[in-house]
Structures are given as structure tokens and as C-alpha cells.
């Protein structure tokens, strides 16, 4: 029973989507709203920071933004693990109790399905902070032989990230004077590095060619034989490696699957309003099937649309702004240069992308992308 007169909004997951949504609600309603934000972790880490950790540019502690620094009027952030979601009743069970709400937003992101790729659990991956930390310790021991950057399934988070990994690995090996003794190959299930932007894909493929990085598009790593150091692709081709750098297959967290909100593995939503099939229940970010990429910038755009809808509903005025499916991604090309692609998923009959050539100057834009969110969400 709602004993408070304030509208209750329950947001599951304090990642890109949850942090942006709760910040917007707090900015609009202040203490006039009762928002509960739940996350099982003790802090937020930008996805791109995992590459910094892996290549030893920063430590995991340096890139972690502790939730203890998150303080917004009207919002309570609770460190709890969501164990069950009842979307019909907007009722959520955690390891600490039960929460009910007038509006429920599922922003629990995507999990990794290690079991989907036999052998992956015994190999290296760079999509978790723990995996990036392990690779930071393994990379200095790699001085000769074959490195394989292998993606085990699509969709996966941040389409350009594995390309960035291959290019940054090249730089790392050059800097250590061992590049000549090493081979780099890159297996990607997509037909090109950034399908909505042929220009960006061309720039990345040229960068691979210039750096002698073997690029195998349209293939995924189906299994790994760690004893023989062989990756088997989905067409049966076997690739030897001495160092494997993997991207696991993605899926929604088990608790979301058990809630019955998914179809074909992802949460069904109206792509423009992010409403699910359940009244008063929305889903944003990597777990929601909007047709846009699994990236923070898109999670944030979807969160803005949900915030707009809630603000209109709760203030009984205005018209909600729909999700525009637009996002800007920054891409590490190596040598400190950053490329930028602006992708628009909904305006035309098919997605389009505008590429901005990689330059040293664009690094400031990428840094601003991170620092502006850090300041806005965590005041630091
Ligand atoms: C290597 C790499 C590079 C990337 N680079 C970029 C980039 O440059 N730009 C970009 O925009 N995106 C990038 N991304 C993608 C980006 O990190 C994600 O797409 C984004 O974080 C998704 O936001 P989200 O809100 O959907 O989920 P998340 O940010 O993943 O947040 C989900 C939250 O839910 C919590 N959670 C999950 N299950 C439970 C549970 N049962 N109980 C309680 N809490 C739970 C998690 O702890 C997490 O905090 C990158 C990702 C990677 C891995």
C-alpha cells in the first residue's frame, strides 16, 4: 500500500539508463517524488574504461564511480540484488525485501552467457572489469605469437569496442617493441565493424590493413579449445592463438527472463516510448529490444524518453518526447586518435551514420563525454 502521497517510481539498475532517468526525475521533481533506484554493485564503471584497465592506463579503482557519491533529492539508491520481478503488479523482490511502485523501469542491462561458448570460461575476455584486470596482468607476458580478438555472438555491447581492442593491442605491442613477432586477428559476427556507417567501417578496415591486423567479418567464435589453443568459428574454421581476447555472447539477466517480459531473448518494448506490454512498466538500455545498439549513449536516450513520459503523466501537462534512436560513439583508433560516428536509427527508412575522421582533437570530446556524466550523476 502506498502510504506516501508522492508518486513512487522504482528503477532497477543504476547503469547508464537508470542513472540518467533518476537524475532527470530528481531535477524535475526534487523531493516531490519517491524514486527508489536499486543496484547490486557498489559503483558504476563506464564500458570504455575496461579498455583502459586492460591496457594498464588506469586501475579498476581509478575508473570505479562509487554509488556512495550519488545523492539526488527524491532518490534513494539501495544496494540490493533483484531476485524477482512481477510486472503485472509492479512488485519487485530483492535479497532485502519487497518493493512496489506506481511506475517500474527495468534498466538491468545485459549479462554475459559464458556457457553459450564452450571453453570461453577458461579463456580471457575484456567485457567485465575482472576480465580486463586479468588481461592487464597477462598482456605483459605476451611477447610473440598469435593474438585473437574474438566476438562470440551478436548483438553485443558497443559495436566498435572489439575494433578498438584490436587497434589498441597493436599500439601496445608496438610500444613494447614486440609487434613484429606477433600476429593480430579479429573475428566479428557483423558484416562490417559499424554496419550503419559504411564510412566508419571503411576507416576501421583501412586502419586494420595499415596495421596488418587480419579481419574476419561475418563469423563468430563458436567454441574454444584451451588445451590446444584453438578457436573454432561458426563455419568450422579453426584458428590457432597464443592469446585470446574474447567478447562473450550477451543475454538479459536471469531475473528478467523469469519475469516473462522477454521475447526472443530481449524485453519487448515500444521502441519510441519504451513501454512494455505491462501497464506502468518500462524497460531501457541493453536489455530492451528497441532496434538500436547496446550502448550507453542509447540507454541514456531511451531513459530521457521515459523521463519525459513520466514527467508529463505526473505533472498532467505537456507532450512526452519520444526516443529518437540517435547516438554519438567515440572510437579509439590508436596513437591517441579518436574517431566519432553519429548514428540515427529512426529518422529514415534505414539507420544512417555520419563519420568524423579520427584525430587527436576529438579526444577532448570523448573525455568530455565521460566527465560530463561523472559530474552530472556523481558530482565528482
Ligand atoms: C568494452 C566496452 C566498451 C564500451 N564503450 C562504450 C562507449 O564508448 N560508449 C557507450 O555509449 N557505451 C559503451 N559501452 C556499452 C555500455 O557500457 C552499455 O551499453 C551501457 O552500460 C548499458 O546501459 P544499461 O543502463 O542498459 O546497463 P548497465 O549500464 O550495464 O547497468 C545495469 C545495472 O544493473 C545492475 N544489475 C544487473 N542485474 C541486477 C540484479 N539482479 N539486481 C540488482 N542490480 C542488477 C548492474 O549492476 C548494473 O549496474 C561499452 C561496453 C563495453 C563492455
UniProtKB/TrEMBL annotation:
Q: Which PANTHER family match?
A: FAD-DEPENDENT PYRIDINE NUCLEOTIDE-DISULPHIDE OXIDOREDUCTASE (PTHR43755:SF1), PTHR43755
Which keywords does this chain's UniProt record carry?
Oxidoreductase
Keyword Oxidoreductase appears in the UniProt entry:
yes
Report the GO molecular function annotations. Answer: oxidoreductase activity
Q: Give the source's domain of life in one word.
A: Bacteria
Q: Which InterPro entries match?
A: FAD/NAD-bd_sf, FAD/NAD-binding_dom, SQRD
- What are its E.C. numbers? 1.-.-.-
Native organism: Mesorhizobium abyssinicae
Q: What Pfam families does the record tag this protein with?
A: Pyr_redox_2
Q: Where is the FAD/NAD(P)-binding domain?
A: 8-291
Q: What is this protein called?
A: FAD/NAD(P)-binding oxidoreductase
Carries keyword Oxidoreductase? yes
